Structure formats: C-alpha cells, structure tokens
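Pipeline run #58 for the internal structure catalog. This entry was flagged by the ingest filter as a single-chain record with no existing model, so it goes straight to prediction. Upstream metadata was stripped on purpose; only the residue string is passed forward. Reviewer on rotation: M.T. Logging verbosity set to normal.
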Amino acid sequence: MRICTVIVEDLPIRVLATDSFHKDRLICFLHGWGDSADRWVPFLALAEEAGYGAVAFDWPGFGRSPRPRASWGVDEYARFLGAFINKYAKDSKEIVLVAHSMGARFAVRYVVEQSDRVIGLILTGAAGIPPERNRWRTFMAKTAKAIFSLPGFSRWYERVRDRFSSSDYRSSGAMRDVFRNIIAEDQRSEYGWISCPTLLLWGESDDQTPIADYRLMLNRIPNATGKTWPGGHMFFSDCPREFFCEITDFLKR
C-alpha cells in the first residue's frame, strides 16, 4: 500500500492507495464523519490481492487532511470529490465509488450533478435522510430555542444543546459549522436522478442511519439492489472479506 500527499484545491490531502494502478477501473473508498481513510486499509489490501486498483483519502477536516478554509457543505465536498478524481484518477476510464455514512452524501451529489465516469455506486449506512422528529420533540426544540434567546439565558444555550445533541455534533469541534451545513440538507429528491447501477449494503441494527433509510433508498434509486447484514453502522469493519466480495460480485454483473 502506498501513502502519499496530493494537492487538491490547494489543500494537502493524505491518500492511501494500492501499489498497482489500473487505468481501466479504479475503486474509490469514501469514509464518513469523524473517520479517516484508515477505515479502508483492510479493503485496500483485499483490492490489491484481487488485482483491483483502489484509493482512499482523508476528507478535508478529517484524518490528517487540513480543514477547509471556509464552512463547507455538501456542494463543496462533492466538488472536492470531483477535483480529486480529476487529478488523481484522470487516466482511469471507469470509477467505482464505495461510500459510507457522510461520504455517501457527497458521492450522491457528485454522481447526480458532475459524474460522467462513475460506473458503479456502493452505499453503506448512507446519510442523507433527515431523522423523523415527532411533534412533541419539534415543539420542545422550538420552545427551548425561544427561551434561551432571552436575556440572561443565552449563555446556557450551547451547554444544553451539547447535552442533547448527537455524538457526531458534540465531537465536531472546529468543524461544527460544517457539520450543521451538511446535516441541514435533505437529499431524498436526489435519489431518483442516480443513473449508474447502485448497491446498498446495510447493518440491520444501524442506529445512525436506520434500516428505514435503506428501504427508502432502495425504492427510490433506479437500478438499485441491496442486502442487509447483522450489525450496526460500522458492520463492514467486522467482515471486510465478505463485504469486499459483495463489491466484486457487483462489479462482475
């Protein structure tokens, strides 16, 4: 496996890749929020073993890649993905994207708006659908926001919000504005515009992107097939060889 730095949009991006590079087809692994390219090391080894060219990189603001200079959202990260592919894989005729969680948001936007070389899309634990909020929680959230906007209460707002927010939000640190920008987008309307063959692989007990999201995507994405596995949001890390076999079987269809 090779480790190198590639300059993309003036940012030094850490890249992990197979030693061999195949011009015909390249598999690009995309990690999720709070993760890094290291998540995909076992899969890069399996790709090398199977004779595939593959690459993974740290998104800007994650792993060892520096934060973007502005508060990016889905559009900016999707544009970055296009810039990375155009620079690193400019000689590859076909691109296959394997995207997890937040990385799936950027992959979907890229495939819908920019891509002309992606011949396969594999989504696992894909984010993009806002969680259902019942009327009581919506009412309480609006009430709390109104109360904490009053003089003398505003200093408590961040503390209370952090207490009841998601673990991703609490751990986002300097990337908090980026996190807000990303999760604010509802991408359900984009799924019908995905034209390449798509495979959905999902953990049956995923508590971050629930199985209901899998069913909705399977229904809305044309030419989509899917399979569920025992396990949660990171189930694929527990069965890398079996997961990679699903990828190679998909590519042989």
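catalog note: Strands lie at 2-8, 11-17, 25-30, 53-57, 94-100, 118-124, 198-203, 224-229.
catalog note: The chain has a mean pLDDT of 88.
status: ready for reviewer M.T.
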